[in-house]
Amino acid sequence: MTTTELDALDPITDRVTLSTGTVVDLERLRARQFFKLLRILTHGAGPALSDLFRMDPNEKPEVFGARLISMIVLSIPDAEDETIDFLRSMCLPAGLTTGRELNKQDTERNRDLWRRVTRDLDNPDLDDLVTLIETIVRRESDDIQALGKRLMAMFKLAEKTGQLSGSRTPTSPTAPSSADSPAPSTSSPPNTDGPTTSSADSPSAGSDSASPPSANGATTPSGAAPSG
Q1: How many CB atoms lie within 10 A of CB 75?
Q2: pLDDT tens digits, residue range 147-173?
Q3: Helix (H) or strand (E) holding 23
Q4: Using an 8 Å Cβ cutoff, are 43 and 37 in contact?
Q5: Nearest to 59 by CA among 137, 157, 141
């Protein structure tokens, strides 16, 4: 059954009646609303977000929409505030009086309608929550899927060209590796100009623990005169 046939049986509407009797009109999914939707997925779904747009380009829109609804619903427990913020941005009170100049009565009526919607969406009934998300996704799934395809094409191109951080590390084919590099040497070249003097004979090597030998070969304690 195609999407058109499904819509004929259960048409997608722009208006939803909540369990409290409040009627709301649904906004179109624009930039700010889309960013709020992404906050739900990035905050709640986490690593599973990368699977959202990893799809078959020929995948049926209703399959994509059902998968997106499942991801959103499963993300809600870890994205409670983000979900309420998203729903508030998508719902308008039905019957608002619009125009450049509103009289006092129209202004007060609009405020009353907004108060009802704000109250009902602050802690919505579970059935209202699922109904709103399902209706919004069904209305916007085609556009979201098309956007996902474009983003995936951009990411693949960026990955192939090395524009994504960590996608590949540029290396020079002629640069020696650390394993092939010679170890640094701290030794000095040998002195070939003449006999070398032992470090023990240098003035800096003398200490109280070593004394010059006496004439008979015995070691004289430091500070004591040799015996005659």
Answers
A1: 22
A2: 877 877 787 788 788 876 654 444 444
A3: strand 23-26
A4: no
A5: 141
Residue 181 within a domain: no
Q: Which residues contact 212 (CB under 8 A, 6 or more apart)?
A: 220
Domain region containing 36:
13-158
- The domain tally of the chain equals 1
Q: What is the pLDDT of residue 55?
A: 55
Name the nearest CA neighbour of 91 among 66, 114, 108. Answer: 114
Tokens 């709640």 — which residue? 44
Query: Computed from CA positions of residues 213, 215, 220, 223, in that sequence, does the dihedral angle turn out positive or negative?
Result: negative
> Is 209 a domain residue?
no
Residues in the chain: 228
25 class by beta-carbon count within 10 Å (0-12 exposed, 13-18 middle, 19+ buried) = middle
Residues 6+ positions from 134 with CB-CB distance below 8 Å? 69
The model's pLDDT over 55-72, given as tens digits with 9 standing for 90+, comes to 555 578 888 888 888 889
Dihedral of CA 58/149/131/93: which sign? negative
User: Residue type for 14, please?
Assistant: D
Greatest alpha-carbon pair distance for the chain in Å reads 128
Angle at the Cα of 70 from the Cα atoms of 84 and 146, rounded to 5 degrees? 90
Asked if the structure places residue 5 within a domain, the reply is no
Q: Is residue 192 part of a domain?
A: no
